[in-house]
Amino acid sequence: MTRYQIEAPVRSFSGESAGVQFSKGTAYVTDADKPGRAALEYFRRHGYGVAVADEATVEERVQALVTGGQAPGSTIPPAAPYDPAEHSVEDVLAHLAGVEHDDAVRILDAEAGSRKPRVGITSKRDEILAATAPVAPAGDDSKGPKA
């Protein structure tokens, strides 16, 4: 059995993909069973970073990700920006459910600016941006002082 570290194309992604739970763009999966092997194949086909994760190198990779570098000997490629044109409408909508506001804006702008923007995505722009909008801190009265 081998344990693998998976890096999502969007580093901020937290959620489930191919039956594997991600936190801040990172997940771990083993090839010990059929679902794990299927998930690994899915990640490889869809541009996720896949690398063998042994206990000695996991900490080095985490540190490299925190500092923005690449761990020595790492086979995890730098993440390319998520391109909605490479995915189905359903995949794009599922992906948008797990991204931060800035990423959602970038992805929706890329879709709208494509040669053939898909209505199934562009028609949900306001809804998606509202769901990903940053929340004002408690006690922040952005409307000004009350009279």
Outline of this structure?
The chain is 39% helix and 14% strand. The chain contains six helices and five strands. The radius of gyration is 18 Å and the shape is globular.
Would you mind describing this structure in some detail?
- This protein is of the alpha+beta class and 147 residues long.
- The chain is 39% helix and 14% strand.
- It is built from six helices and five strands; from the N terminus they run ββββαβααααα.
- The chain has helices at 34-45, 55-67, 89-96, 101-112, 119-122, 125-132, and strands at 3-7, 15-17, 20-22, 26-30, 49-52.
- The strands form two sheets. It has a three-stranded antiparallel β-sheet with strand order 4-1-5, with helices on one face. A two-stranded antiparallel sheet has the order 2-3.
- Helix 4 packs antiparallel against helix 6.
- The chain is globular, with a radius of gyration of 18 Å.
